Every structure is written in structure tokens, then in C-alpha cells.
Amino acid sequence: MPAEPDDPGIRIGVLGPLTIDRPDGPVTLRGVKERTLLAVLTAHRDRTVPLPVLVEALWGERPPPSAHKSVQTFVLRVRKALRPDRSAPEVVVTDGGGYRLALPGAAVDADRFTALVEDLPDAPQAAVDRLRSALALWRGTAYLDFETCDVARAQARRLDELRLTASEELAAAQLNLDRAEAVVPDLERLVDDHPYRERLWALLIRGLYQQGRQGDALGAFDRVRRRLADDLGVEPGRELRDLHARVLAQDPRLDVRAPHPLPRELIPAGRLVGREAELATLRRWWSLACAGRPVLAVLRGPGESDRLRLVQELAAEAAERAPVVADLGGVIDPPPGDPGGGPGPSRPGLLVTDRPAGTRPGPPPGQLVVHVAGVDADAPDGAAVLDLAPLPPA
After folding, report:
1. CA distance 297 to 159
2. From edge to edge, which strands make up the β-sheet containing 98-101?
3. How many Cβ atoms sit within 10 Å of the Cβ of residue 67?
4. Is the bond leading into 104 cis (omega within 30 degrees of zero)?
5. How far, CA to CA in Å, does 10 sit from each of 7, 20, 47, 102, 257?
6. Which range scores top for mean pLDDT: 253-267, 330-344, 346-360, 378-392?
7. Positive or negative CA dihedral for 333, 334, 337, 343?
8. What is the pTM of this model?
């Protein structure tokens, strides 16, 4: 596969009607053949599509004698629509007996969606935020208006399945955050639309049980059992049967503990932008602490608000599973006497402090201590260090 091309600023949308946006505004591509050609190239973004594949996509099994010449004409029209400035790099390139749409993944909404829903973070709130961003990209049926094109139909089926999986993951993450009230109505709609999707039924049963509706949860199991038996002649799978038994037994593992309270100074303020790599480093340190290791870290940077905002993002995720304590400005929040307040040596915990590193004992196993400091602060031997460069104006 060719290397990821440079981004010319063009955006193509296929999660709904085909849309084209250039830096100077939206573009209308009117010809049916031209739109189908672009849809096929988009489905194979940055991969060469052989000329015979394009011919079949445009005319089926009975192409006209002039098909190859017509494809060249359609390509010229698509090129003109995408790149009216002939001095700009070509977007539709001729490549080894075919054509290739030379755009990066960020240029196509379907590729952005796929990237967002793959390799989800473990923290439920981070997963919720990412999945919501992914699902918000949809504007209707994928590759709408290309039902007669086999390539587009195949891509639409793949994306629809991924969309449904993302909806399941979003529901699961929200249930892990004890948000059954917000999830159950959506799950009721989804099981109506996909009555044989057993994972959706399992999530619905969990949500009803978390709402204190044990009878409704058992009723949902009866609904899916009857539907599978009447329509398909099969019994529910092992996951549903095991869940049914756990609901009957009122298994305490079905209960969800609310996240730990966040210290006031560590409540996130607005959206975090431009620090994805640094946040990944903090998450890696937190994973080590959750695995039982003591982690002492120094986060150095030129602006306190920027440093603190980065730590806020980590703290919001960490609070979903462990206590978080702030020792900032001489104030400890929550105070040491609060029930369940501070992290202890036998459980994971996060401590964020602005006291100079080395003025307190090292962390016990399972603890991450993050010292927020200025650019010239010293770091003790053995401490992990993350230096923040100033963000660019953009």
C-alpha cells in the first residue's frame, strides 16, 4: 500500500449521501457515473482500483465498447471537481493500470469512524466520548444512492455492522458508568431493529436490572427466548442463559459502583485539544500503577493551566476505578479523614500534587504520584518525567 499521502484539505463523506468539501467550500458532483466512480475510489482510498473493476462498477456485466475511454472522461471530471487549482497535487492519480484516490484517512468520514471505534480505551468515560464522536459522523445510510454498485453495497454492509458494534460498545461503557436510565430506551429501540442480536438483549437485561427492574429484566429474557424459538427454532446462547441465572440469583457482580468523586481542582474544564500523545504517556503510567507498581512522575511545563488540564483528563478516567487525591496549593482534597478518600497501599490510587518532588516519601505499590511543576523543576532519581512543549497557536 502506498504511504499515507499529504492532506490537501479535501473532505469526502460517505456515511450518508455523498458529500465533497474543499477548503473553499462544498462541491456538487452531478453526474451519476462520476459520483459512482468517486464512491468506488473512496471505498478503496489510497489503494489502486484496476480499470476493469471501475468498468464493472459503472456498467455491470454489459459495458459499452467505449467503456475504457468513458472512464478516462469521468476521471477528468472528478479531478476537476476535487482540484480546480491545477497547481495543487493531484488527488485522483493514475497508478498501474487503474486509479487511486490519494487522500489520507482523515479526509474520509468512514475512515475516521473506523479509526475511532478501533482500539477503544479501557476507561469507560474515555470510551463513551470516543464512541459518541464516532457515531456523530453518521448522516444516514452509508453510501446512500449507490445501492446498485456492488463495491458500495459491500462497504455499506461493513460500516453498518461496525456502527451497530459501536452502539453496543457505547451502551456497555455507559452501563459501566451506572447510566442505565440513559441507555435502556436506546437499547429497547435497537432490539426491535435487531431482534436476533443477542448482545443487545444482554445489555438491555443488564440495564433493566441496574435500574432495579428485576422483573422487567427477566421479562426481556423471556421475550428474546420466545423470539429465537418462534423465528429460528433455537435457544438463547450461553451468555444470555448465564446472565438470566445471575439476575435470578441477584448476583452482586451485576451492580455497578459509582465512580469515585473527583477533587474540585481536577474536574475537567472544557475539551482537551493537542495533547493526545502526552495523555497516552500519563495513561501508560496509570496502567503500571494499576498493575501494582509504584510510579513517581514529574509533569513539567511552562503554563500551570495547561499542565493541570492534562492531569484533569487522566484524573477523570482514573476516578472510574480508584480514589483520586489532589494536594494543590496547600489544600488536600478530599481531606485525609474522608471515607474512601486517599489511596492506600493495598489498592490503586492517583495523587496529584504541586509540592516539589522529593519532599514526600515515594509512592507505595499501586500508586501513581504526579508532581505538577515548572519547566526548571528538579526530578528525583528514578522518576518518570514528561516535559510539555508550548502548544502551537492553532
Report:
1. 41
2. 49-50, 98-101, 92-94
3. 16
4. no
5. 7, 7, 17, 11, 45
6. 378-392
7. negative
8. 0.68
